[in-house]
Amino acid sequence: MDNIQNILEHLFRQAALVDRTIRIMEICGTHTVAIQRAGIRSLLPKNIKLISGPGCPVCVTPAGYIDALIELAGRKDVVIATYGDMVRVTGSKSSLAAQRAEGRNVQVVVSASDGLAFAMENPGKQVVFAGVGFETTTPPTADVILRADQKTIRNFSALTAHKLVIPAIEALLVSPTCAIDGFLCPGHVSVLIGADAYKPIAEKFLRPCVVAGFDALQIIAAIDRIVSQVVEKQSLVENIYSAVVKPEPLLSAKKLVDEVFATVDTEWRALGIIPESGLAIKSRYGEFDSQKKFHISIPVVADPPGCRCAEVIQGLIDPVDCPLFGRRCTPIDPVGPCMVSSEGACQAWYKYS
Amino acid sequence: MCLAYPGKVIEINGCEGRVELVGNQYNVNLVLVPEVAIGQYVLVHAGYAIQIVDEEVARETWEIFNQIDEKLA
User: In sequence order, what are the residues at sequence separation of 6 or more whose Cβ sits closer than 8 angstroms to the Cβ of residue A19?
Assistant: First the structure.
């Protein structure tokens, strides 16, 4: 691959051929952080605008889901096993961190496997694994549910809010206010779904999609490819991270997920209900579904007053355009979900701008 | 949250295994890469290996992971 200087020169020449702003959305929180960290915005032609889309799983998990976890944490003998990212996120009133400080059982785990192991080591406790995230974290949740089923482990279940990236992109594109020209597609989510998964975006919605890794060279090369496609009036899927991402999905993962989960309409924080964008545990594995086991539902909760995260992750405004940004809403005392997560658009903007 | 780190597979016991990363060892679940062999490099996400990669990719990924993750911490 060329060096950064050559790619940037090509990018400037291409961008100069377009007499309007080209808006490129990244849909992976790790890309958001990498772009801010490397100061990539400052290197780009003036008419290229990068937008941080709904790619941070913590940011798009609805407040009602956190409320449901908190309710479960308050029940006798229940332990919540959760990824560390979720602990600080507030629901409508509180967070798991605050609940833990008050003595509730909240166990941070690095993997779903550890959550299951914790249940096996603590047969007197009911362990609820908080299964959130995109296609990268769904296969592990499916795996532990299958293993719990095979080993008849009765004190383990999962409260899941897993989400699918492609339906979310499509939902953004059908919105009449959408003004996105192309997508920088995630590196490691794409390992699971395969680069071909973006073909509907390219073919039906006519937007260039380029899969890239996380270093500055790959990100800038992807931006250059998207802009070049805009210039050529093309909309193709390109994969410049082919050492890691294949065209096809990871079949071992797809098999696990298809066995345990069914596609459902689901709520995204700030975006509302998106059709067929989430996964629910099939009734066959209902005894491992915390919602069924504990007879709880996930309430729909309004976003905090004044918070404009919804517009931020649709690319309608920049984080700084929100009146709360940096004043009422900071990483220390966040109001909106995009400020809570280290991969959130607002927190990344706040830290590196 | 969706950034995988690389590791060298040093032990395989069914679907469970261990990977080594700059001198440290971690448990890893191998159910998603059943064809993996000892000595190969994998990308690990949330405790699960998601892809087999060559050594050069593993090294590059480690450098990126190191840069980004210190900012995430």
Answer: A47
Residues 10-39 (B) with a CB less than 8 A from some CB of A:
27, 29, 31-34
Unique residue bearing structure tokens 């931020």 = A312
Chain B interface mutation, best of A35, A136, A146, A340, highest count of B Cβ atoms under 10 Å? A136
Q: Which of A118, A188, A353 to mutate to test the interface with B (most CBs of B within 10 A)?
A: A188
pTM above 0.95, yes or no: no
Answer yes or no: do B47 and A112 touch at CB < 8 A.
yes
pLDDT in tens, chain A (353 residues): 568 999 999 999 999 999 999 999 999 888 998 998 889 999 999 999 999 988 888 888 899 999 999 999 999 999 999 999 889 888 888 999 999 999 999 999 999 999 999 999 999 999 999 999 999 999 999 999 999 999 999 999 999 999 999 999 999 999 888 889 999 999 999 999 999 999 999 999 999 999 999 989 999 999 999 999 999 999 999 999 999 999 999 999 999 999 999 999 999 987 889 999 999 999 999 999 999 999 999 998 888 889 998 888 888 899 999 999 999 999 988 888 888 888 888 998 898 87
What ipTM was predicted for this assembly? Answer: 0.90
Q: Could you give the C-alpha distances from A203 to A170, A196, A234, A237, A262, in angstroms and in order?
A: 12, 11, 10, 9, 26
